[in-house]
Design a protein that fits this description.
Mean pLDDT: 81
CATH architecture of the domain at 95-267: Orthogonal Bundle
GO biological process, one term: transmembrane transport
CATH superfamily of the domain at 95-267: MetI-like
Low-confidence stretches: none
Radius of gyration: 24 Å
Subcellular location: Cell membrane
Pfam families: BPD_transp_1, BPD_transp_1_N
Structural class: mainly alpha
CATH topology of the domain at 95-267: MetI-like fold
Transmembrane segments: 12-30, 102-123, 132-154, 174-192, 228-250, 280-300
Helix content: over 70%
Family: Belongs to the binding-protein-dependent transport system permease family.
Number of helices: 15
């Protein structure tokens, strides 16, 4: 297992280096920069001083090498070009907890409710609970999250006025965004879980367990869920990482000061340092989440660990 983890970590670092390199050169290939508009009416010497301060007057490859050195040896993601004095690390530390709370609630609700609906639909196949769950699943996949968010705002903030429309700070501010974010996740997990449970129920070891007199609860918990949940865990990994940037539109609609909101602002302002630093943060989180998912496979299904040793 240790050898496997070290190998995966090496691949993760190589992947991260490729992402950093591609992002660095792509964002600088876009015409213009934040300083050109900010220093438009300033004297030429002052403009040159601005460019020299942030190293934008140096060759592109030299800027790239300097950035890598600061990142590797000092873990320095740089300073914002639009807001002098604000570092990228400070922005991540300020805005990511907001997105983490909102996305964490959405993932927990989507995973638990979706898994429960999928199991219910499988055991009640071709009955009204199955039809209701599948209807909700199709609806959840078809309706975009921003449409669901707009409908929720109209129903609960305009028509009935029971929840706040926008803002952040209270628990009530998280209810509608969480529902809008987890609606699609519930549908996805329900569909996957229903199909996998139906497949597991026709396996020989299920018939053997029933013949031995295993209770329904033990049958579902020990034999059905553990074997049917692996594909759902595969989806869970990217979603854990996506909670920070997957809610761009939702955070905009509800005016939530989260990571996605700040990331979009950095792109609009062409804040090179902020875009690159936040991309590195998201990419690292995404890659690390995939590693955790691979390790969870061995926890959920011991057969994976046995085959790995062999």
């Amino acid at each position: 297992m240790l050898k496997y983890i070290l190998k995966r970590v090496g691949i993760m670092l190589l992947t991260l280096l490729v992402i950093i390199t591609m992002t660095f050169f792509i964002i600088r290939a876009v015409p213009g920069d934040p300083l050109s508009s900010m220093a438009r009416n300033l004297p030429e010497q002052v403009k040159l001083n601005f460019y020299a301060k942030y190293g934008l007057d140096e060759p592109l490859f030299t800027q790239y090498i300097k950035f890598l050195k600061n990142l590797i040896f000092h873990l320095d993601l740089g300073e914002s070009l639009v807001y002098p004095g604000r570092t990228v690390a400070e922005s991540i530390g300020k805005f990511s907890p907001v997105s983490a709370r909102l996305g964490g609630q959405a993932i927990f609700a989507g995973f638990t409710v979706g898994i429960g609906f999928g199991i219910l639909a499988a055991f009640k196949r071709n009955k009204w609970p199955d039809y209701v769950v599948m209807f909700l699943a199709i609806l959840g996949v078809s309706v975009p999250s921003f449409v669901a968010a707009s409908l929720l705002q109209y129903q609960f903030t305009v028509k009935y006025m029971v929840l706040p429309t926008t803002g952040w700070g209270k628990a009530s501010h998280t209810i509608l965004p969480t529902i809008a974010l987890c609606f699609g996740s519930i549908a996805t997990y329900a569909r996957y879980m229903r199909a996998n449970v139906l497949d597991v129920l026709h396996q020989d070891y299920i018939l053997t367990a029933k013949a031995k007199g295993v209770s329904n609860f033990a049958l579902v918990w020990r034999h059905v869920i553990r074997n049917a949940i692996l594909p759902a865990i595969t989806i869970l990994g990217p979603q854990i990482a996506g909670i920070f940037v997957g809610s761009f539109v939702i955070e905009r609609i509800f005016s939530i000061p989260g990571f996605g909101f700040n990331y979009v602002s950095a792109i609009q302002n062409r804040d090179f340092s902020m875009i690159l630093g936040q991309t590195i943060f998201f990419a690292s989180l995404y890659i690390f989440a995939l590693l955790i998912v691979d390790l969870l496979y061995g926890v959920v299904d011991p057969r994976i660990r046995i085959s790995g040793k062999r």
